[in-house]
Specification:
One of its GO terms (biological process) is virion attachment to host cell. It holds the Pfam family Phage_fiber_2. InterPro entries: Phage_lambda_Stf-r2. The chain has 7 helices and 18 strands. With about 375 residues, the chain is an alpha+beta fold. Among the domains are: about 110 residues, no CATH class; about 90 residues, Jelly Rolls, CATH 2.60.120. The chain has a 5-stranded antiparallel beta sheet with strand order 3-4-5-6-7, with no helix packed on it. Strands 10, 12, 15, 16 and 18 form a 5-stranded antiparallel beta sheet that branches. A 4-stranded antiparallel beta sheet has the order 11-17-13-14, with no helix packed on it. A hairpin with a 5-residue loop joins strand 5 and strand 6. Helix 1 crosses helix 2. The chain is elongated, with a radius of gyration of 39 Å.
């Protein structure tokens, strides 16, 4: 968009309008038709983007075009699953997905809710899984642990079963830098000594730790505590949930779960859709008034003193600002600019000296 300084050289150094100064030889800014044409084209382009044709009988077309552009940009909802990157899941679709998930296996049942357990095991490719008997036979085999085999300064799991195994530690665990937990800890090694992974489990707390190294004589990475994790699937599902429209409210309050609409927030912003008004005729010094609107207002009061000067005090909910005393005769004094929250009371008075009300302005 062009500034007036892009059209005429009679603008100031900032490219803005100037009234000029005849005595100083500075001409006033000439209102060139080119700049007005630019502004007109800018506004017409907004109408065209909204698919509207200029109507010389309609003075509200620009606001209607903006409203239409905003409305057209709203996200469309769908009740069906699919691959769309523009549609958002409706409450109905999210509820359907949740109900569908609730019909799946309940982990608290530990497989008890599987109707055909044999078929389930076979589908997992575990039909050849060891039986209790075969496991018992293997467990009866002895591991050769001669007195000179184990070295308390090294990882036991690196000394058992060729580098694969489980080491159970007491309350004074080895290695010395094992995670600090409340009580005993259990350490599991996965992989051989050239590239092992260590898992550590607290015996009495729901805590798990992991660390790795790349080489058999390399340095271990720091222990990392594994906490509750959010899977990509659950995160994606959560992010796709559409906000329930019933949770959108249009008034302020103390709810920690509901959200305010954009319009409601905008309506309550101080200074937005408000303007300064002269309410002198309806106001008196010493009288108390109440802000009965739903958003904050502001006021400032000016008094005039013909004799000894005065100061104008202003008060909101009994909190007083005495104002600054103007000692000049036949001079004006103004109160502080005061902000009045919704439902609060406010007033103004001559806090010192003598004077009378000249102007009472309110931003509302």
């Amino acid at each position: 968009m062009q500034k007036i300084g892009d059209i005429t050289n009679t603008a100031d150094s900032n490219g803005e309008y100037t009234n000029g100064n005849v005595a100083a030889g500075i001409p006033p800014t000439i209102l060139e038709s080119g700049w007005f044409n630019t502004v007109q084209r800018e506004m017409i382009n907004v109408l065209l983007k909204a698919g509207m044709k200029p109507d010389k009988t309609n003075d509200a077309q620009l606001s209607e075009a903006i409203r239409k552009l905003v409305s057209d940009s709203q996200v469309a909802l769908t009740d069906s699953f699919g691959q769309s990157s523009s549609l958002a899941a409706s409450q109905k679709l999210v509820t359907h997905a949740n109900d569908n998930a609730n019909r799946r296996l309940d982990k608290a049942q530990n497989g008890a809710d599987i109707e055909d357990k044999a078929a389930f095991v076979n589908n997992l490719g575990l039909s050849g899984t060891a039986t209790n008997e075969s496991v018992d036979n293997k467990l009866r085999h002895k591991v050769n642990i001669e007195p000179g085999v184990l070295n308390g300064s090294d990882l036991i799991s690196e000394q058992l079963m060729g580098g694969f195994g489980v080491a159970i530690r007491g309350s004074a665990p080895i290695p010395a830098d094992a995670p600090t937990v409340d009580g005993a800890i259990k350490v599991v090694q996965i992989g051989n000594n050239a590239w092992p992974t260590l898992l550590a489990f607290s015996a009495y707390e729901n805590k798990m730790f992991i660390r790795t190294r790349k080489e058999s004589n390399g340095s271990w990475n720091d222990w990392l505590e594994i906490t509750d994790c959010v899977t990509s699937a659950s995160l994606s599902s959560g992010l796709s949930v559409k906000l329930d429209k019933s949770s959108v409210v249009y008034a302020t309050g103390s709810s920690a779960t509901q959200v305010m609409s954009q319009q409601a927030v905008t309506d309550r912003l101080f200074g937005i859709n408000q303007s300064w008004r002269d309410v002198t005729k309806g106001r008196s010094l010493g009288a108390t008034y109440e802000n009965s609107s739903k958003k904050a207002i502001a006021f400032v009061v000016t008094a005039y003193s013909e004799r000894h000067g005065c100061s104008v005090g202003a008060s909101v909910d009994g909190i007083d600002s005495p104002g600054t005393f103007n000692y000049k005769v036949n001079a004006f004094s103004s109160s502080s600019l005061m902000i009045v929250p919704p439902g609060s009371s406010y007033s103004a008075r001559i806090s010192a000296g003598e004077g009378y009300l000249i102007k009472w302005l309110e931003l509302s």
